[in-house]
Amino acid sequence: MLEVDIKHTRLVAVTIIVLGLTLVSITDVHSQGKLRIAAIVNDEMISVLDIENRLTLSIYLSKLDNNLETRRRLAPQILRNIIDDRLKLQEIRKNKIEVSQAEVINELRQWEKRAGLSIGQSTELAQRLGVDKAAIAERVEMSVGWRKLMRQLFLPTVSFSEQEIDDIIAEEISRRGQPELLVSEIFLPLNRTESAAEVKALARRLIEQIEGGAQFSDIAHNFSQSASAAVGGNLGWVRPENLAANMAQVIERLRPGEVSKPIPTLDGVYIMKVENKRAIEPFIERSNRPAAVTIHQIHIELPPSPTSDVKANVREKARGIKTQARSCAEMEDLGKKHGSSLSGSPGKIEVDKLSPLIQKAISGLKKNQTSAPVEIADGFLIIMVCDRDEPQIKELTKAELGKKIRNQLGTERINLAARQYLRSLRRSAIIDIRL
C-alpha cells in the first residue's frame, strides 16, 4: 500500500492511485473490509467504498457504461469530487450552518427530478445499484449547506449603486440585436499536483461519452466542479464578449447542439455546449425551458426493395390518410387501421431532441395539423402536432430589468467567491492518500 502525505496543497493528485483503486471490485472491497481507508481529509476518512458508491451512482446517472474502463477513467475526478465535498461539509459544520429536514427533503426531491426519478425513488435506486443511500443524502445535505454558507459569507458584500445598474441597462439597450447564446459548461479544475495534460485527457474522455449518446447535463451534474453543475451546467444566456477570449472564440463557431473540444484556462479545462442562439432584446425575458411538442405519427411501411411505382403508391396512400385526420384521437384510430407497429405517440418531447428531418416536417404546424408524408428508410411518416409548449415570453419594465440584472450579478459574484473560497480550503487542507 502506497501512502502519500500532502500538506497545505491545493488538492491531491490521484492518477497514482487510479489503477489500484479501479481494480478493486465490489467483491474485493467486501473481502478486504468495507471501510478500507482510501484517503483522509483533515482527519476525516474517505473509504474505498465511498468512492465505489459515488462511481456507481455517477456512472448510472450519467448513463455511461458501467465497466472497468469507464471506472478507471473516471475514478480520479470522482475522488476529487468527494474530497471537495468533504471540505465543504467540514466548513459547513465549522460555521454552524443548520440544514433543516425540510430543506434536505426539498433538495432531495429536486435531485430526484434532475435524475429522472419519481418522488421518493432515490431509496429504491440506491438499493437497486447496491450503494449506500448515505452517498445520496450526504451530497444533498452538502449542497444545501454550502449554498447557505456562501450566501451568509458573501451576500452582505454584494451591492450595486443605481448608477451602476443604469449604466448596465444603457449598455444592454445599445446591444439590442447583437447575438447571445444559451450555453452549458463542464469545468474540470487543474491542481498543482496534476498536469494539464491529465485534465485535458479526462475532458476528452467525457466528450467521447457525450458524443456516444450521454446527456451533457448528466455529465455536468455528476462531474463538473462549477456552481452550474447543480443545474446540469446551464449558464443561461451569455454574450461572447463577457467570456474569456479563448472561450468566446470557440463558442462563436459552434452551432446549436454542438459541443466544444477541451478549452484550457489557468484554473482548469472547460467543455462548452451551445444550446441555442438569439438576438439580444433587453426588455424581453424568455424562459430557458426549451420548446416542446406532443406529436402523434402514423408509419406506413414499404415492402423490401420497393420499385419507384410501389413507393409512389404508398406515398399516395399516406397523403390520403393525412386528409382524414383532424385530431390526435383520429390519428390513433387511423394508425391502428393503416399503420405499422411504429405508429403512435412518443409523448411530450423537446423539439431539439427530434431528428432534423422531423423538426423540419413539423415546423410551422399548428395544433391538430398534419405534416406532408415524410420519407424515411422503410416507409413514410405522417406527423400531427397534438400540442405545443413554447417558452414563455415576458415584457420587462426598466425596474424589472434592473432587478434581474442585480440578481444575475449577485449570483455571479457569489459563485466566483465560492470558487475562490473552495480553492483556499484545498490549499490549507491536510490530505493523506492511502492507496
Strand content: 15-25%
Helix-strand sequence: EHHEEHHHHHHEHHEHEEEEHHEHEEEHE
Question: Based on helices, strands and strand pairing, what is the structural class?
Answer: alpha+beta
Number of strands: 14
Rg estimate, integer Å? 26 Å
- Report the uncertain regions: 1-31
Mean pLDDT: 85
Give the proportion of residues in helices.
40-55%
Broad shape: globular
Strand order of the largest sheet: 1-14-2-3
User: Between the first and last Cα atoms, what is the distance in angstroms?
Assistant: 6 Å
What report would you give on this structure?
The protein is of the alpha+beta class and 435 residues long. Helices cover 48% and strands 19% of the residues. It is built from 15 helices and 14 strands. It has a four-stranded antiparallel beta sheet. Strands 5-4-7-6 form a four-stranded antiparallel beta sheet, with helices on both faces. The protein has a four-stranded antiparallel beta sheet with strand order 10-9-12-11, with helices on both faces. Strand 6 (263-264) and strand 7 form a beta hairpin. Helix 4 (68-94) crosses helix 7 (134-154), helix 5 (101-114) crosses helix 7 and helix 8 crosses helix 15 (398-428). The radius of gyration is 26 Å and the shape is globular.
